[in-house]
UniProtKB/TrEMBL annotation:
<dbReference type="GO" id="GO:0004519">
    <property type="term" value="F:endonuclease activity"/>
</dbReference>
<dbReference type="InterPro" id="IPR004860">
    <property type="entry name" value="LAGLIDADG_dom"/>
</dbReference>
<dbReference type="Pfam" id="PF14528">
    <property type="entry name" value="LAGLIDADG_3"/>
</dbReference>
<dbReference type="InterPro" id="IPR027434">
    <property type="entry name" value="Homing_endonucl"/>
</dbReference>
<feature type="domain" description="Homing endonuclease LAGLIDADG">
    <location>
        <begin position="3"/>
        <end position="94"/>
    </location>
</feature>
<protein>
    <recommendedName>
        <fullName>Homing endonuclease LAGLIDADG domain-containing protein</fullName>
    </recommendedName>
</protein>
């Protein structure tokens, strides 16, 4: 899930404020896929810091952060990237960012056909 977030983690009413990227991996009914998702986010965090010098914050989701949260054996995790690093992140991935619509406030990452994501991840 990719979405815009405000400084306090809520969806911003005023889009002129500082925004960032949030990638969320939730625990699924299949424990293995949930563990793989968490592992993926940890690898993304390490790659962002090591290769691209982008700071990101990987934190577990507390129960009650969302209205429809449910009990899991392992916590869900969210990866935050600040607004300042967001354009750099997209550029390094060879992607274009679309402005979010007011209706769903989703941040769409569009793949650049000239540069494949797999090639970037192997840096």
């Amino acid at each position: 899930i990719t979405s815009l977030w405000d400084a306090d983690g809520s969806i911003p009413a005023d889009k002129t404020k500082g925004l960032g990227f949030r990638g969320e991996i939730t625990q699924s009914y299949n424990p293995e896929s949930g563990e793989n998702g968490i592992r993926l986010l940890k690898e993304m965090r390490d790659s962002l810091e090591k290769h691209w010098k982008i700071r990101s914050n990987l934190r577990p989701v507390r129960k009650g952060d969302y209205k429809k949260s449910y009990e899991t054996k392992k916590p869900r995790y969210i990866l935050h990237i600040s607004q300042n690093d967001l354009s750099k992140f997209a550029k390094e991935l060879g992607t274009y960012l679309e402005h979010p619509s007011k209706r769903n406030r989703m941040l769409k990452i569009i793949e650049n056909p000239k540069k494949h994501f797999a090639e970037v991840t192997e840096v």
